[in-house]
Amino acid sequence: MIIDAHAHLSPTAYGSTERYLEVLRQSGIEQAVVCPGGMLDVRKMNEFVSGQKKPDAIPKNEYVSQSVQAHPELHGVACVDPCHPQALSQLEALLKQGFHGLMVSPLVHKFSFSDDMMAGLATLCGEQGAPIISHNGWRPGANTLDYVQLAKKFPRTNFILEHMGAHPADAEATEACASLDNLFLETSLGTHLHVAETVKKAGASKVIFGSEFPLSHPALEMKKVYLLPITDGEREQILGGNIRGLLCLD
Length: 250
Fold this sequence. Notes:
Elements: E1 3-9, H1 17-27, E2 31-36, H2 45-49, H3 61-70, E3 74-76, E4 78-79, H4 87-97, E5 102-103, H5 116-128, E6 132-134, H6 144-153, E7 159-161, H7 171-179, E8 183-186, H8 192-202, E9 207-208, H9 218-226, H10 232-246
Parallel strand pairs: 1-2, 2-3, 4-5, 5-6, 6-7, 7-8, 8-9
């Protein structure tokens, strides 16, 4: 079974649940892991990265929850702001609602992976069997090695690093993924060479297929996995088996 492990849903024309479901049908993908989107307009990403525009800091967890309840092929991952004083209780409540994991966004919320609140969130996720998912923030305190250090401190919590780490190839992410049992890399927007080298070094069990909808298309991102020189069994792991196990979707 193919599962898109990384899509963002938002009440917008470009990132709506209805549009995503149509994209999944076009791609021949049966299930997906979805998290809140729309906090920044991905069509104008450069304006947010450069600081010209400020994101909407409130995650649309309710929209994702409604989408998951209406469409059982979707599995929700919650987002909370680690800087919020009630972040821990917010996450606990969202996990009780049925969310499968925690996404944090260092481009939207100005935290560091070494912050005390991140430690509390990581502890809770480990206790609940819920992975933490994040991308790089491309600033001190929110880069690959900062995320790796967090994963090392909490070996009972699983961590997924989006986009294979930093573009266009992140050797630090590959090395850490190969050496840490609890760190996984997600393929969306990653280069084919970097994905191939990571699979070769860390193994197919440490790599997870995702699309980064609406910024990219699942069929396009999936093509990179089909072009990898790997066995059918390894491809099945990347395209669905790994994320199914991490989120206990069975």
